[in-house]
């Protein structure tokens, strides 16, 4: 029997084979309309490859203090208000400080550390662009009320002096009368007297920024 080879086939047949082979390009093999499953897979890959965002916004209704180190007694280097955007440091991580509070390093608008609350509580920072299904946190009466204090009229019948620093020898900035209310700073802490006197101070933001003697304050009714 005579063996058939490509060279022994008629020219018309060879031409047909060549045309069919040249038409099988990758574009022709690939589906011009990918399936929903393919589209979901491509979207997942794109999300996984997207660079991590270091932008966060402040959720704490009264803002946050920026400190030099991740501790509440570290020097204050600035502050950021509610809904202000901050930039986290490269390679950021939660740092557990005294009392179990978590701190995070930021590089903008000022370099330092801010409190992100306690692990079991709400975060003080949120994504700049809310994720799908996320509910934006807004300041509430409960949040503000927890920072409200009233001057005890029995212990301070003449009211309290508001000082520039936690010391009675520092500059006098104003006063608050007996029975009147003040608002503490977010993540407040008791501060020892700068001159070693036997009293603690606390920082306030209302009616003006400053420091008052803590022992003469009580929770607002």
Structure report:
The protein has 221 residues and is of the alpha+beta class. The chain has four helices and 16 strands. It has helices at 11-22, 26-29, 36-49, 141-145; strands at 55-58, 64-67, 76-80, 85-88, 95-96, 102-108, 112-115, 125-127, 148-151, 160-163, 172-176, 181-184, 191-192, 200-206, 210-213, 217-219. Strands 1, 4, 5, 6, 7 and 8 form a six-stranded antiparallel beta sheet that branches. Strands 9, 12, 13, 14, 15 and 16 form a six-stranded antiparallel beta sheet that branches. It has a two-stranded antiparallel sheet with strand order 2-3. The relative contact order is 0.12.
List keywords for this structure.
4 helices; 221 residues; alpha+beta; elongated
Cα end-to-end separation:
110 Å
Portion of residues in beta strands equals 25-35%
Runs in which pLDDT lies below 50 for 5 or more consecutive residues are 22-31, 43-51, 131-145
Overall geometry: elongated
What portion of residues is helical?
Answer: 10-25%
Which structural class should the secondary elements be placed in?
alpha+beta
Mean pLDDT across the residues is 76
Helix run count? 4
Give the oligomeric state of the chains in this entry, treating copies of one chain as homo and distinct chains as hetero: single chain
Extended strand count: 16
Q: Main β-sheet, in a few words?
A: 6 strands, antiparallel
Radius of gyration, whole Å: 33 Å
Q: H/E order of the elements? A: HHHEEEEEEEEHEEEEEEEE
